[in-house]
Structures are given as structure tokens and as C-alpha cells.
Amino acid sequence: MTNFTQDYYGNGTPEVIDTNATYAFEEAKRVSVGRTYGEMTLGLIVTALVAMITQTGNLFLNFMVATRGLGWILLIGAQVIISIFMGTRIMKMSTTTARVLFYVYSALTGFTMSTIFMAFSLGSIALVFALTAGFFLCLTMLALTTKKDLLKTGPILMVALVALVITQVILMFVAPGAGVLKFVAAIGILIFAGLTAYDAQSTRALLDQYANQPAMVKKLSIFCAFQLYLDFINMFIYLLQLLGNNRD
Questions:
Q1: Which of 79, 146, 238, 248 has the fewest CB atoms within 10 Å, counting from its CB?
Q2: What does the alpha-carbon distance between residue 23 and residue 162 come to, in Å, rounded to a whole number?
Q3: Which of 197, 174, 166, 182 is nearest to 243 (CA)?
């Protein structure tokens, strides 16, 4: 289907607008964004399943014993390496490699997060997860529908995140009280709420930029899913620290 509109800034010749092409382009953008959130959801499912299996089989404690307490360093090191590799090589790696790395990271996160079952009640974990999902959905919908440009907030949020991490490390040794930790958790929630909205708009902008390159869109949708996954996981952890009930 083709529409004709009059060009009043030229010589009066009609301007041809291919509405089929426009519709196809918009549909491709919608599908690519949907693919991103689908990948993120699968990553969360992998994390949840691995966490439950690890806790049921007492695998994390066995791993820590086998590694003589060095397991945390190995796990964190592996996750940092994957994050850096994906961030710096996403344009050059294959879609399969990107997807495998994402799900390996999700599995490692599930393995480490299995410890929350030792600290918090199951009902509390389920409630906070549902709250995180609802909060995350509202933030992404707001970011994707608002006309306000949130991309300018990226550098500010990253500086705030670095400051938060440094503050947490210092407070672990200086003032490790529950009240202080809850205050830090509240700040963390605000920062990752901002990052969620920022990454939602960034995802749309990045996928729009490469909309005419299907192969690149597939890789970038996985990378964007990874970014949103990190936002969700961190927001969940901070909400759990703030609202979770300790296990009896």
C-alpha cells in the first residue's frame, strides 16, 4: 500500500510514502525489543533453576569446601571476565557465542545466589521477586513511553554505581550494622531503578540504529538482555536486603 502526500516545500510534486515498508520497519523494531526481553526472561529462569538445584543438592557449600574458600574469587572472577568480554567484543562475536556467554553468566549467578535460601525465608524471596518483577515492568514501560530523554543520565548513574560499590566495601569493615546496610540497599534500589529506565531506552535506541542489519540486531538483543538482566538481579538483591525476612 502506498500513500501520496503533497510536498508544499518543493514544486508541488507528490511525495510517495511506502506504508508497507514503514509498517515492516516498525514491526521489526517491535520484534527486536520483544526478543531482548524474551532473552532476559530466559536468563532469569536459568538463574532461578540453577539456584534451586544448587540449594537442594547443597552444591555451593560442597564447592566452597572443595576450593578451600577460594570459590568466591573464582566465581566472581569468571563473571567479571564474561562481562568485560561481552562488553568489548559483542560486535565481533557470533550470536551463538553471545547467547552461550549470557546463559553461562546466568547459571553462575544462580549458583552464587543459592545462598539467599540460607538467609531468607522462601515466602519472603518469592514476594520480593514478584515485587521486583512488577517494579521492573513499570520502569521499562515508563521509559519506553515517556518523551523524556533518559540517555543523558547514563554517566551520572554509572558514577553513582561506582560510589555505591566503594561505599559498600568500606561499610563492611567500618559499620556493618543492619541499619546501615538497609540504608545502602535503599540507595542501591534507586540507582538500579534509574539504570533500568536508562537501559530500556538505550536498548530501543541501539536496536533502532541497527534495524537494517538483522544479524547485528540478534547479537545486540542478547547484549541488551544481559544489561537489563543485571539491572533486575541487582534490584532484586537490594530489595531483598531491604524487605526480606530472615530465615528462622
A1: 248
A2: 42
A3: 182
**Distance, CA of 132 to CA of 44 (rounded, Å):** 12
CA atoms within 13 A on the CB side of 204: 17
pLDDT in tens, the chain (248 residues): 545 444 434 555 555 545 544 444 455 556 677 889 999 999 999 999 999 999 999 999 999 989 887 888 999 999 999 999 998 998 889 999 999 999 999 999 999 999 999 889 889 999 999 999 999 999 999 998 888 888 888 899 999 999 998 988 888 777 666 678 888 999 999 999 999 999 999 998 988 888 888 888 888 999 999 999 999 999 999 999 998 887 76
Phi-psi region of 12 (alpha: psi -120 to 50; beta: other; left: phi over 0): left
First vs last Cα of the chain: how many Å apart? 66
Cα 111 to Cα 55, 56, 197, distances in angstroms:
8, 11, 27
